[in-house]
Amino acid sequence: MVVGSGLLAQALDCFAIRNDVLIFAAGVSDSVACTPADCSRELRRLSGYRNIESKLVYFSSCSVTDPEHAQSPYVLHKQAQEAFIHENFKHFLIIRLPTVVGSGGNERNLFNFFYQQLNQNRALTVRKEAERYLFDVSDLVTVVRRLLDFSNDRDVIDACWDNRVNILQIVEYMRRALHSDSSIQVIDGGSFPIVDNQRFIDAMGGELTEGKSAISILDKYIALRGNHEKSGE
């Protein structure tokens, strides 16, 4: 069973016919504009599945370990959701995802926002110490299947590759790829999630960790988005 209709839910629609797993992909998707109403809505929806015997798969965020965002409404909400799951679900797998890149999804997520701003030659401000891990949404089915087999009955796993990259590097690379004239203002500050991804890497195996660099992910979705725009989709 899959709950949700956004980017993650669409990527995992193959789980819809499974009765042993509940994929909850209906969480707050906007880490910038996370309102109390959004948080309450997600909690109410999640609460409705408290008594299930199926294993819950919930998507949290690697941002819960980012010191700069420790007190942000989004991170506090994700932490509260994780605690709620520990207290109310018998069987669960909490997968903490980094920055997810894909075709579609919230226009305010990192890739979509940068693409839109740069493609329209708008100015951007970047914190020089900010870094992120990138995750290709097309890997999600394989990742979830592997982690369901690998994880404990009640588990939390940081699911990110070893591809941490500076935000300024992302912006500069995308600006060149898009031939953008956007001006970039660099200011002090920034941080990155402090992840422990060894169990994730072990679960995925060496053959599945190749080709996951931040640049390869950016190349893929810059090209895909450009093709969609050319075709008018």
Automatic annotation (TrEMBL):
Highest taxon of source: Bacteria
UniProt cross-references to Gene3D superfamilies, sorted A to Z: NAD(P)-binding Rossmann-like Domain (3.40.50.720)
InterPro entries named in the record: NAD(P)-bd_dom_sf
Official protein name in the record: NAD-dependent epimerase/dehydratase domain-containing protein
